[in-house]
Amino acid sequence: MGLMNIMLFHSMYGLRPAVHAAADRLRAAGHEVRVPDLFEGHTFESVEEAEAFREETGKEELLKRAVLAAAPYSDQGLVYAGFSLGASVAQTLALGDAKARGLLLFHGTSDIAENASVDELPVQLHVADPDPYETHDWLNSWYLEMQRTGADVEVYRYPGAGHLFTDAELPDFDQAAAELAWKVAIGFLATL
Questions:
Q1: Which DSSP state fits 143?
Q2: Which H helix or E strand runs over 80?
Q3: Is the pLDDT of residue 2 over 90?
Q4: What is the pLDDT of residues 85-99, one digit of tens each?
Q5: Domain Dienelactone hydrolase spans what residues (predicted)?
Q6: Looking at the predicted structure, is the pLDDT value of residue 137 above 50?
Q7: pLDDT tens across 62-72, in order?
Q8: Radius of gyration of the chain (CA)
Q9: Which of 32, 108, 119, 184 could link 84 by a cystine bridge, Cβ 3.0 to 4.6 Å?
Q10: What angle do CA 99, 105, 108 make, to 5 degrees?
Q11: Is 160 helix (H, G, I), strand (E, B) or coil?
């Protein structure tokens, strides 16, 4: 109820203006938002450049940076949120944080550890339909696995939208889908 402390992770394009705009939108709804830079200042215009950088940095290093960014605030009970790559990072952190208040995923999910367990963690996912990175088969098994962990999951699919449809700077942008996703997401945060 009311103000949430949100840790918002960027996509593989890096900490670009669209991520700051998303944080400002959440702040306008009354939340405290932090946007750590997991790429240490690097941003990318193409998927290929972004993929190469992510591979070079490595998943473990990115997770370590995310944990270090979240650790000083986790006692307050964070809502973890993210876009695409950032959503997978947010999911990993939320499932490992007993004090997590919620998980808000845009455009992405992640593998779930066998032993992951949460106490009715509220989870909301916003994803394009179809999405080349989040196939129907994957999402169906992800949903069942998340329920097995004890999460309370809602999935919203946006037919015809591109993968990163909330990012106004990318070709995937879909204004109608983005506005609907934000309206639903801000409503979700108000219930936590």
A1: H
A2: strand 78-83
A3: no
A4: 999 999 999 999 999
A5: 6-191
A6: yes
A7: 999 999 999 99
A8: 15
A9: 108
A10: 125
A11: coil
